[in-house]
Amino acid sequence: xIHQVLQTxxxxxxxxxxxxxxxxxxxxxxxxxxxxxxxxxxQIENKVCVFVQNIEEEKLLKNSSFQANAGxxxxxxxxxxxxxxxxxxxxxxxxxxxxxxxxxxxxxxxxLFDRSNSPSLPSSLDKVSVEFFNQSIQDLxxxxxxxxxxxxxxxxxxxxxxxxxxxMIKEDVGRILSGQDLxxxxxxxxxxxxxxxxx
Length: 199
Prior knowledge:
The protein is α+β, with helices and mostly antiparallel strands and 199 residues long. It has one domain. The protein contains four helices and six strands. Strands 1-2-3-6-5-4 form a six-stranded mixed sheet. The model has no long low-confidence stretch (mean pLDDT 83).
């Protein structure tokens, strides 16, 4: 579910920025800022990145008025904290601020995502609300130290109360293939194209 929600935000923010600036290329990507070894990622340069900062359980709704079959766990609600960062290196600092302004405009005009305006939301989710999340200087320092990067213009949004429960409908996601699987699939396809004759 989380990946689909992030994908929905990224896609719609992309469309908004392209329309506002008359662009044809995608400017927003769902990506971390650093690779696993702490190096910078080339694909995020001159882009707006959307990534998850934190996932927390919503304690206020835990176990509240839950009725279900015996032995079933109550639903769990989680809040996401997503960071939207504009990565435009010098001398394009002002472009970073321009894009962050567009991000704020977008979410100010769309604080509720539901079936009518976001058909790409997962089937188990009717709606999701988003609010601007203020961070102190200390919080910012901790965040960017954790990321392992220098601060760049960014904003944080809280995505509230995504429900998780045992009977969630799982949407099919293709299996990630290994190199060996890919070679076998390619060989099988080649043989089918040749009329079943081995190559």
